Amino acid sequence: MILLFPLIGRVGASSFTGWMSVPGVITLEDTIIELRDVSFDDGSLMVVLLNGSTSNTFIVKLGESLTFGQTSLTYFRVLANSESLVLIKVNFSHVFPGQNVTFVDYTISVLSVDSSGAKLRVSKGNESKEFTSSDFTFGDIRVKVSAYPKIFEGYLKRGQDVSAYGHILTFSNATVENTTGGFIETVFFTYKNNTYPIEVGKEANVGVFHVKVEELVGVDYVKVVVNFIGASIDVETVPDLTFMLSPGQTQKVGPYIISYDYYFGGATVSLRNSCGEVLRSAKLSADPISALLYYGGAAVGLESIASNGTATFFAMVDETKIPSVDKVANLLISVSSDGGKQYVPMTAMVTVQNTGTVDLSNVSLKFVPEGDVEILSGEELFLQRIRPSEKKTFEVKLLPHRSGSLTLGHVEAEAVAPSELACGGYTVLNFRSNDLQVSIEPSNISYELSVEAPNQVPIYHPALIMVTVTNTGDVSVPANLTVALPQGVAVGLDDAFSSRGDIMIAPLSLLSGENVTLSLKAIPYTEGTKEFIFRIETPFGIMDSTVLNLDVTVSQGNETTATVIETTAVPSNGTVTVTETYTTTETQTFETTVTNVQTVPYTPTSAKAMWGVLGFVLGALVIIALAWYQAKKV
């Protein structure tokens, strides 16, 4: 039985992918592809194909492909300005030893291909270098090489072909010759009408094929291994610089500074000189048709942009077109944070790096808050000097008052330009960081308030009121316990309280789960129901409140009179002394006089007047009672 092994399959052809200037030229051995012009209206690309004396012109629209022979050109994007760039991909066949291909300003020559791989020479202008590795970078291009691929291994029947990329190898005949030294088996292959004999057990090149003959079965079947003597070359342009910026940040590009000014329907950027003067500006987008920021050999395009405005740019610099400038000033400022929790202090890290080529001195940095955020520390920083490539890091403590996806602010910096960059004398350079965008978790602010006091109390008798406050939330925020006092009540206060008119205030600072108990002594001097209002107030509103109704009663049964003597010459937050004299008349023939002296806080003027009137009336009643008693004895 004879076994036939099918073709292993083809190895992928060569390709070029990347940005090219318009006009520009690609040379693929005998075929020349000219990129003649591009339309600013719809982005259409004019392509001219030259092959010998034949010339054909094509209009390729964005997203379309142009195919000719084994070559195809696909058109992806265009960046248009005074200089225009197009993003294309060109697929073409293998390159054989002795052949050249040219892209942009680079020429790639295949020197040799064998079982060890390919040897290439890459040239640009007067510079050239030879490579034998399968992956290398030269200037602005990256090259990957796959050479000498095995395209067939197995049995061929006489008359059967092996084909690869338009090239055909045919097993045309075989002979067996009986000689004095034994049998000589010879296999014949045809390539482009030429016949090549190879003895069994040997190998040879047949055109672009390398054939190894392993076995002859009769004269109709031959077992062979076939390699393709060519190199698959994948070339990709590599930008001189790829970088990410947020609105407000800057980046050094050659001798220039690119500033990402703002994000609104695209990225508005400007190219500045070392003095900060705007040389060119453009609004870039990631659309198939976009503007290109170009000036003096530097081209900047937008690769992608996120919903928060963070953009990825690429830059290509042609040193031959750039003025000779080696003094550049730039500060790259980045501010970042892992996020935080509402009403909980958080840390933002600010990194400052001198990405220019000169020292910067007297650098002042300031965090500029946005929205409902409070700066606790680190708002400003001063650097006496920061050298090229030097990096500084500092912290800013913030207190966010809201939750959600927030922009908390950015950092602005000013620096004095060095003398060699001071345009027109003294020059201040301005720099800006990205916006600090973070996710803030919501917090639960909750306090509970409980009040303990007797339901009723006799007039002129003190009532002890106990107030307990508990932080039942998950964060600690400043709070005040306020007590609104009713008319007709004097109070003796805990040291934690201060007064503001008829409002008593006790500041509180409780961690989550903590509680505190405060007390005050209420002394009513008028009867009726007295309403005390208790509240827990924070900067974010009233967290809890309650009302205490204290019933003030007048004693029944034995008659009691009181004389109240009050001193009024005291400071507004001082105390007054009240002397109360009680006279109790009983059935015994002796009298008992009890004097009780208490110190209470200063009371309002209206209360003083009431105390005075009450004292006068009670004093008069005592005098009348004594006179009546004496008269009865007589």
Keywords:
8-stranded mixed β-sheet; single chain; mainly beta
Describe this entry's structure for a reader.
The chain is mainly β and 634 residues long. It is 5% helix and 61% strand. Strands 1, 6, 7, 8, 13, 14, 23 and 29 form an eight-stranded mixed sheet that branches. 29% of the residues are buried. Residues 1-12, 558-614 and 616-634 have low confidence and may be disordered.
Short overview:
With 634 residues, this protein is mainly beta. 5% of the residues lie in helices and 61% in strands.
Low-confidence region ranges: 1-12, 558-614, 616-634
Q: What average pLDDT do the residues reach?
A: 83
Total helical segments: 1
Shape: elongated
- Count of beta strands: 55
- Main structural class: mainly beta
**Largest pleated sheet:** 8 strands, mixed
Helix content: under 10%
Beta content: over 45%
What's the Cα radius of gyration? 48 Å
Distance between the termini: 160 Å
Topology:
Elements: E1 14-22, E2 24-28, E3 31-38, E4 45-51, E5 54-60, E6 65-68, E7 71-80, E8 84-92, E9 100-103, E10 106-114, E11 117-124, E12 127-131, E13 135-138, E14 141-147, E15 150-157, E16 161-164, E17 167-179, E18 182-191, E19 194-199, E20 203-206, E21 209-217, E22 221-228, E23 231-237, E24 241-245, E25 250-253, E26 256-263, E27 267-272, E28 278-284, E29 289-291, E30 293-295, E31 298-305, E32 311-317, E33 331-336, E34 340-341, E35 346-354, E36 360-369, E37 373-377, E38 380-386, E39 391-400, E40 404-416, E41 428-432, E42 436-441, E43 447-452, E44 456-458, E45 463-471, E46 479-484, E47 489-493, E48 498-500, E49 503-508, E50 515-524, E51 528-538, E52 541-553, E53 560-566, E54 575-584, E55 592-601, H1 605-633
Parallel strand pairs: 1-23, 7-29, 34-42, 44-52
Antiparallel strand pairs: 1-8, 2-3, 2-9, 3-4, 4-5, 6-7, 7-8, 9-10, 10-11, 11-12, 13-14, 14-23, 15-22, 16-17, 17-18, 18-19, 20-21, 21-22, 24-32, 25-26, 26-27, 27-28, 30-31, 31-32, 33-35, 35-39, 36-38, 36-40, 37-39, 40-41, 40-42, 43-45, 45-50, 46-49, 46-51, 47-50, 48-49, 51-52, 53-54, 54-55
